[in-house]
Amino acid sequence: MFDLTRLIHLSSGADRDGVLNEIRTVTAGAEHALVQPTLPGVRNGGDILVHLRFDNFDQRASVAAEFDSVISSPGIRHIDGAEYLGTPHRGAPHSADAVYRTLLLRIAPGTQDDTVAQFEEDLRLLPRFVPAINAWQLSRVESAVGSVPWTHVFEQEFASLDGLTGPYLMHPVHWAFVDRWFDPECPEVIVRDRVCHSFCRCPSPVLSPG
Question: What pTM did the predictor assign?
Answer without folding.
Answer: 0.94
